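Weekly structure sync, notes
Attendees: PL, DS, HV (note-taker this week)

Item 1: Sulfatase N-terminal domain-containing protein
DS walked through the input record. Source organism listed as Elysia crispata. Sequence as pasted into the shared doc:
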Amino acid sequence: MLVHAALITVTTALLHLSVVQSAPQSPHLIFIVADDLGWNDVGYHNPDIISPNIDKLAGSGIRLNQSYVQPLCSPSRSAFMTGVYPFRMGLQHMVIGESQDVCAPLNRKFFPQILKENGYMTHMIGKWHLGFCKWECTPTYRGFDSFYGFYSGGEDYYTHVYPNGYDYRYNLTVNTEAAGNYSTYEFAARAEQIIQDHDQAKPLYLYMPFQSVHMPLQVGKHICSTCTCHSRVYICLSRVYTYFSKLVHTCSTCTCPSRVYTCLSRLVITHALYLFMPFQSVHMPLQVPDKYLEMYPNIKNKNRKALSAMVTSLDDAIGRVVTALQDKDMYQNSIIVFTADNGGWTIFGGNNYPLRGGKVTIFEGGTRAAAFIHSPLLKQTGVIYDGMMHAVDWFPTLASALGITYNDSLDQDGVDQWEAITTLAPSKRSEIVYNMDYHPAPVEGQSAIRFGDYKLIEGYPGLYQGWYKPDSVDQGVEISAGQLANMTLDTPAVQELMRSGQPQSLAKNHYLFNLKDDPTEHNNLYDKLPEVVQQLQERLAEQRKRYVPPNFPPNSPKANPKHFGGVWSPGWC
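Item 1 (cont.): predicted structure, written out as tokens:
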């Protein structure tokens, strides 16, 4: 028995060495998250996008063709950090608001905590968006040695205000020196500093969730310096209740978008070094220095032009990080992961073509991420991996890549995919739960599951359910308040709901797709394959036994920045 166990241990070690070449110490890990980046928003999927650094890393690494995320920001980030499906933690409904008394469950161990226990220096740069009502919820209490960025879901790229409070920190201290500086540049500079100062006696984990290419819908620094008005659009998928009573135009020197609030808490709809860099890019607002806009003279749609330019600025920032690793002689022993947190938001410049839908939907366009792994340590490079993986898999997969083991008591949904990905072997998973959300609302919730090649959607799949070419949607700042209302509330079910105030059944919203034959989800097989539908419904029913109702409290006035000197701050819950 002892001999058998020893042989297994030796075989496992040799297998690990066969896919990752030997290194003098544990590899450094750079984990980059692009915010609201669509499938069609990177150069290696779309030649109209200028992203040479991203393309080079992807082309000389392993591109992940079926890497799934959640359809919105907070749920995906919680999955990255815990390896647990959001529907099992109460985080499946929308995103964590800056005024909500909630954060990612404190009883769940985060990935950087595991790395710290194994000797890693852990740093985070960028967007948190996992709750901050009390200090225990914030990055430096959850495994990061340092934090440089913002707590909320989005902010002005230059002023760092969102929407009525300043939000930018260095560790626990408010960082006012960043005011006026473009956040993508700030994040890249901070990464360069961390790498330059890093003691290579310890491995590095750098988590970089960039702000880009998230909204707001403003482009060019000249607009930021002359305007104080911002377009704020919140789309809540539980209820749709629109407010158009406050259309704010505060500048006479420029055309400012109307301040539109589509409230989603009540709204009526049709139903080594671990450097974690979750950039806000390309999340709203769509702000970017003019030099990047000038690189896209042929794009006429303002939002598409701005978002494309933001991808290029993000690409430059990533190039700076790679150069810093090379200059420090750390690159050869580094693993770089790149992923979007959800699909592109089609009405605000993002694009997922030819996939269906986008951000906030559970169609492929909202949940299949542009993602890759790059490392000089990989044996196979310049390849595409077509196996299924999910955001919850990153935790165990990267722990395996770094040679780290941890206790099974974490009760994760993620599986270790490192061997499968690096040897191009079949995926270790055959099933993915896209989401499961039955939050009480005037309309039914949603659930979706994939088992093998088949995908079942039940309930409301989300806004903007079509197929959108890059120039096919008049987006964001081009849309008046009334037009936006029509876009979100123009279905008979919603109109009836708004008239009667009574719940409407969305039971007719059923879809079944064979994603192997139909990855763009054109052919609904729900009525043609009842046996397959029943099989997937049984799988959903089994998963539902683990369902935790959403923790989605109302906004609290205690969170108002006016209580904290105009700054978004913890310490009120």
